[in-house]
Design a protein that fits this description.
The chain has about 325 residues and is an alpha/beta fold. It is about 35% helix and about 20% strand. It has two domains: about 190 residues, P-loop containing nucleotide triphosphate hydrolases (Rossmann fold, 3-Layer(aba) Sandwich), CATH 3.40.50.300; about 70 residues, no CATH class. Bound molecules: adenosine-5'-triphosphate (ATP). The site of adenosine-5'-triphosphate has 14 residues, from strand 1, strand 2 and helix 3. Adenosine-5'-triphosphate (ATP) binds next to strand 1, strand 2 and helix 3. Belongs to the ABC transporter superfamily.
Length: about 325
């Protein structure tokens, strides 16, 4: 299932890499790495007219925190584009600013400079077009049932009446396999089930971008794998655009079709690559292991991305 899914994503989510491949004569086609990715030679710029329209953009985003006299620079000049239907991953070591970027994309914190845009409009605060699923299991109101939790979010966004909200909530709860738990309270659910409710609630909002901040990190390994599989299945059904934060290289390769690699603190873009060729079944394969090692080198070696490995990265960004 997931292999087919990954291939489908290629058709749906036209990325600059695809445009490059399509728009070039065969003799000038982009070099292809061992994992089959197209690589852009350093300095190559895609002709602007041939780029697909991005749904969501980060443009030179600098995020800073001030606590007392101390200023923490969380990210530096981070830019990326997410296209409709992407499963876009922010991957980087602890403290590189992944969660900060996701919170800023949600509109919870403001960049010190730079901007986020959705459909070309600047983001100035939270909105129902960007819904977040967090890692914590306490995202649900404990005094409300599973169904009430989802209905409450839908009613708060003021887009649906009572009957419509209930229908929508039931629909998405059935989709995540919780049809028999509509009237259960959160404390009676396992961690995985609580995350399913949070995902159903987010999907029910039918956001333009679903933001996920390490949603499976607190789950045991088996449940985590199952949830990754279910998320891919849900993506297959809904084609929702995902922005997914993780510090697990394996999770990034399995869940994503595009991965943005961030340097250690403060987070800067190290490289961007395609990962659509990997599925749940490829974990453990030679190709998967090779990609994992290369990403590890790109993340942690001090070399500029392209010198570290010119075959994996689709776009590279030199440290400032
Ligand atoms: N509210 C805050 N006040 C001050 N500094 C903060 C705050 N939130 C994050 N930071 C700092 O910003 C930097 C980036 O943190 P962030 O949580 O975004 O990183 P991360 O990549 O998501 O890390 P992790 O994978 O460990 O969750 C870190 O140095 C962190 O200490």
């Amino acid at each position: 299932m997931t292999h087919a899914l990954k291939n489908t994503s290629l058709r749906l989510a036209a990325t600059p890499a695809q445009v490059l491949q399509k728009s070039q004569p065969a003799s000038q086609s982009a070099p292809t790495g061992p994992a089959g990715q197209a690589s852009l030679p350093r300095g190559d710029v895609l002709p602007e007219a041939s780029l697909p329209e991005a749904l969501f953009r980060a443009e030179r985003v600098n995020l800073r925190y001030q606590t007392g006299d101390a200023i923490v620079q969380a990210t530096r000049d981070v830019s990326f584009s997410i296209y409709k239907g992407d499963r876009f991953i922010l991957l980087g070591p602890s403290g590189c600013g992944k969660s900060s970027l996701l919170k800023a994309a949600a509109g919870f914190i403001k960049p010190q400079s730079g901007a986020f845009t959705l459909n070309g409009n600047a983001i100035s605060g939270p909105g129902p077009d960007r819904v977040v699923v967090f890692q914590e299991f306490d995202q649900l109101a404990p005094w409300k049932t599973v169904l009430q939790n989802v209905i409450f979010a839908l009613r708060a966004s003021r887009t649906l009446d009572k009957v419509q909200a209930r229908e929508r909530a039931e629909h998405y709860l059935h989709r995540v396999g919780l049809g028999n738990f509509l009237h259960a309270y959160p404390h009676t659910l396992s961690g995985g089930m609580k995350q399913r409710v949070a995902i159903a609630r987010a999907l029910a909002m039918e956001p333009a971008v679903l933001l996920m901040d390490e949603p499976f990190a607190a789950l045991d390994a088996l449940t985590r794998r199952k949830m990754q599989e279910e998320l891919l299945q849900l993506w297959e059904e809904t084609r929702v655009t995902l922005m997914f934060v993780t510090h697990s290289i394996e999770e990034a390769l399995v869940v994503g079709n595009r991965i943005l690699l961030l340097s250690p603190h403060p987070g800067r873009v190290r490289a961007e690559l395609n990962s659509h060729q990997f599925s749940m079944d490829s974990a453990g394969s030679e190709q998967f292991q090779a990609a994992t090692s290369r990403i590890h080198r790109l993340l942690f070696e001090e070399l500029p991305a392209f010198e570290a490995d010119s075959t994996l990265a689709e776009h590279s960004h030199e440290p400032a």
